[in-house]
Amino acid sequence: MAADAKSVLESGADLLHVDVMDGHFVPNLTFGPDMVRGLRRALPLAFLDVHLMVTDPEMFIEAFAEAGADHLTFHVEVVPPERIGAVAEKIRSFGITAGLCINPPTPIEKILPHVGLVDLLLVMSVNPGFGGQKFMPEVLAKTEALADAAAPDQRVEMDGGVKLDNVQRVIDAGCDVIVAGSAVFGLPLKDRAAAIKALRGSGSVK
Question: Which is catalytic among the residues 14, 19, 34, 153?
Answer without folding.
Answer: 19
